[in-house]
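Here is an idea for our session: we take a single protein and study its fold together. Which protein we use is up to you, so please pick one and set it down. Once you have written the record down, we can walk along the chain together:
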Amino acid sequence: MNYTEKLENVTVLGAAGKMGSGILLLTAIEMADLSMKPENKGKQFILYALDISQTALSGLMKYMQTQILKAAEKKVVALRKVYAEHRDLIDNSEIINQYVMDVMSIIRPVTTIESAYESNIIFEAASENPELKIKMFSQINQNNKNKPWFLTNTSSIPIAHLDKEAKLEGRILGVHFYNPPAVQKLVEVIKSDNTKPEIVEFAKQFIKNLRKTEVPSYDFAGFIGNGHFMRDALHGMSEAQKLTKEMSFIEAVYIINKITQDYLIRPMGIFQLIDYVGVDVCQYIMKVMNPYVKDEEIHSPLLDKFMELGVRGGQNHDGSQKDGFLKYEKGKPVAIYDPDKKQYIAITEYAAKCDAKLGDLPKSILPWKAVVGNPNKEVIFRNYFKELNSMKTLGAELAKEYAKRSKNIGLKLVSDKVAYNEKDVNTVLLTGFFHAYGPINDYLN
C-alpha cells in the first residue's frame, strides 16, 4: 500500500482526549484533502474516532466542527480551486460549509475497539499507561488481518517495550505530538531497532504534509522532551526544598518559579509548567522513566506528597488551568499551596519580601514575549547573560546555577544517546516548550 491507501482506513484511540482530539483533527483534514484529489475520486476514506465515553465523543464532534471551520476559513482561496467544478458553490461561506461537511463525513465516532479491526493505521493517544497500550495493541493486532501500523503518541514509554509485549513485529513507531497538536509544530519520532523502515517513511510524509517539525529521538524512556523536562523539574523542586531551610515553602516555590520564568526568560516558571502538564502526569512519567535510568533517581517525593493531598494540576476540558502548586485566576497565578496548612496563600502576601531577597533583575532583561520572536535575540541574550554573570545577588546566583544545570541535562541526553545531537535537544525545547533559546549554549562560558 502507498501513502494514500494506508490513510483510507484509520483509527484514533483515545480520540476524545486533549491529545487524541488534536491528532484526530489533523488526520481528518489530511484524509479529506487526499480524498478530494482527482486521482482519488471514488475512494472511500474512513476515520474512526474511538473513545470509551459516548458523551465525550458528542463533545468531540462539536469541537471538530468548530476547528474544521476555522481551518477552512484560513484556506478558502485554495478550496475555491478544489471545488471549482461545483458550480452551485458560489460564496466563500458555501465553499467553507461544504468543506466542513466533507471532512466531518469521514469521521465515525465509536466506542467499541472492534471498529479498529479493519484499519491500516492506528494512531494511539490514550493515557500514558504501558499496560493499557499493550492490551489495546494486542487485541487489535490479533483481530486485524491487515497487519496495521501503530503510531503511538507516548511521551515516555520505550517503543521496543510496547513492540515486544504486544507482539507487533516492528509495526510500531513513536510519533509524539506536543500539546496542543493542532497548534504545536514539534513531533518527536522514535523508532526501535525493530521498527519497519516503511513506517518511518510514512510518518515523515505525514508530518511533512501537516507542516510540522520532525525531531528524531533514540528509543530511551522519556525521549528528548520529557528527558529534559523531568530532570529540569526535579532540579527546580530540589532547589525549592533547599531554600526551605531559610524561608517558608510557599516563598521557596515563588522564588524558583520566578527564577525559571523571569530570570531565565521562559514562557512560564517550572512550577507552572508542572501544573500545566499535571502533577499526576509528571509523577507517572517519572515512574515510567526511572527503571530505565541507571545513574540517577527520576523520582520526586514532593510530587508524591502533593498527590497524597489531592493536588493534581492539569487542565479542564475547556483548556483552562486547574490549581496545582499554584492557584490560578483567569490563567494567572494568584496563590501558592501550603502543604502544611493545606490551603493556598495569596502571592501578594509575600511577593515583595521574596523579590527583595532575590535582588534587582539585570537592567538588560526583556520579557519572554519581547524576545522569543526578535530577530536580534542572539545579541540580546549574550548581553543579558553577560550582565547576569557579573551579578552576585541571590536571584542571579540561582539563575546561573539553573541555566548551567539545564545545559548539562541537554548535554547528557546527547552523551547518553537519547538525542542524536545538541541541535535536536535545542529544537525540542525551542519548538515543543516555546523556549526563546536552547539550553545548550555558551552564554555563561
Q: What stands out?
A: The chain has a mean pLDDT of 96. The two ends are 52 Å apart (CA to CA). The first helix runs from residue 3 to 6.
